[in-house]
Design brief:
Blueprint (H helix, E strand, L loop, with lengths): L2 E5 L4 H12 L3 E6 L7 H10 L4 E4 L5 H10 L4 E4 L6 H6 L1 H21 L4 E7 L22 H19 L4 E7 L1 E3 L18 H9 L6 E4 L11 E2 L1 E3 H17 L2 E7 L5 E2 H12 L5 E4 L8 E2 L4 H7 L7 H14 L5
Helix pairs in contact: 1-2, 1-8, 3-5, 5-6, 7-9, 7-11, 9-11
Bound molecules: UDP-4-deoxy-4-formamido-beta-L-arabinopyranose.
The site of UDP-4-deoxy-4-formamido-beta-L-arabinopyranose has 18 residues, from helix 7 and strand 8.
Length: 336
């Protein structure tokens, strides 16, 4: 079976994807610098799958370290998760974000070119649809961004498109995630952000275990059914399965394909909160706060292309996502 390099494989989506790859029979090599993950995640992947794999504690900015991975392993394809992802932090520290995400990716591509590895699945984001496109988002819509984090995704998509134009032997899947939440049903891996969470679900989780006092609902005056923001939440295990489809695709095809990984359904902040309350069996305190700058009223996917190109569609509904999130945080109140 092919060997897949997973950069950022100790992270939230990366670890769930590693489980999927191992269970599908792939060999994997994981590279991570633990800037937003923990070594325990690797132990949990092994515990869930009963399988071992090679690991390199490596920063993609260290080109020699990245090359060493390719020199020591016959890598058939790369899934590239490694990168900073906090929108607010990217606004405060743009150079840190551009250097880490863009330069890190350029180092990875240079190493891939030197060792003749021309197949990559890139962790992009629905954020590349920017503020102007109508929902549901379709892959051929123009891309843009409203913050440095989003621009790193737009730019890396362009870099990979240009690499393919320079060498048509490349195969590139640009996976545009909507809002990944949930956790592996074992409760052994899940979303485990450092510090106070920026995103809705991990924040709700910390309120549920008493680490945070109450949820702040960022605005209830949007033009939506209940006034709160609408997002396309997707179970992280569905997302991991989508990466399995993308790896199979890049191993068998050449060219560049941008593909939405979402459910095509929108849920409001209150939908998520009430679903989580059902899962944990208690009411959770919240307070309505002003809108968060940069937030869109609504974001959700057109999922036709994923079905047509990958034969993939999401299986889990919102209640399963929140139930699995609750199961993880209940068993890991202090994270991994
Ligand atoms: C979801 C909804 C908020 C927190 C971002 C990035 C995206 C991806 C996922 C990395 C919105 C509301 C949130 C809170 C709230 N990141 N909210 N109180 O902003 O859709 O997407 O994270 O890959 O690229 O842009 O996700 O979870 O922050 O917000 O009311 O404490 O929940 O207003 O409507 P978002 P989110």
């Amino acid at each position: 079976m092919p060997t897949i390099l997973v950069t950022g494989g100790a992270g939230f989506i990366g670890s769930h994807t590693c489980v999927c790859l191992l269970e599908a029979g792939y060999d994997i090599v994981v590279a991570d610098n633990f800037s937003n993950s923990k070594p325990e995640a690797l132990n949990r992947i092994k515990k869930i799958t009963g399988k071992d794999f090679k690991f390199y504690e490596c920063d993609l900015l260290d080109l020699e370290a990245v090359k060493k991975i390719f020199a020591e392993n016959s890598i058939d394809a790369v899934i590239h998760f490694a990168g900073y992802k906090a929108v607010g932090e990217s606004v405060a520290q743009p150079v840190k974000y551009y250097h880490n995400n863009i330069t890190g990716t350029l180092m990875l591509i240079k190493a891939m070119q030197e060792y003749g590895c021309k197949k990559i699945v890139f962790s992009s984001s629905a954020t590349v649809y920017g503020p102007v496109n109508p929902v549901p988002y379709v892959e051929d819509m123009p891309t843009s961004a409203t913050n440095p984090y989003g621009y790193t995704k737009v730019m890396i998509e362009q870099i990979l498109r240009d690499v393919y134009v320079s060498d048509s032997d490349w195969s590139v899947s640009l996976l545009r995630y909507f809002n990944p939440i949930g956790a592996h049903p074992s409760g052994l891996i899940g979303e485990d952000p450092n510090g106070i969470p920026n995103n809705l679900l991990p924040y709700i989780c910390q309120v549920a275990v008493g680490k945070l006092e109450k949820l702040g609902v960022f605005g209830n005056d949007y033009d939506t059914p209940d006034g709160t923001g609408i997002r396309d939440y997707i179970h992280v295990c569905d997302l991991a399965d989508g990466h399995l489809c993308a790896v199979k695709y890049v191993l068998e095809h050449k060219g560049v394909e941008a593909v939405n990984l979402g459910t095509g359904k929108g849920s409001s902040v209150f939908d998520v909160l009430h679903s989580f309350e059902k899962a944990c069996g208690k009411e959770l305190p919240y307070v309505v706060k002003p809108r968060r700058p940069g937030d869109l009223p609504s974001s959700y996917a057109n999922t036709d292309k994923a079905k047509k190109v990958f034969g993939w569609e999401a299986k889990y509904d919102l209640d399963q996502m929140t139930a699995d999130s609750w199961n993880f945080i209940k068993n890991n109140p202090n994270g991994l």
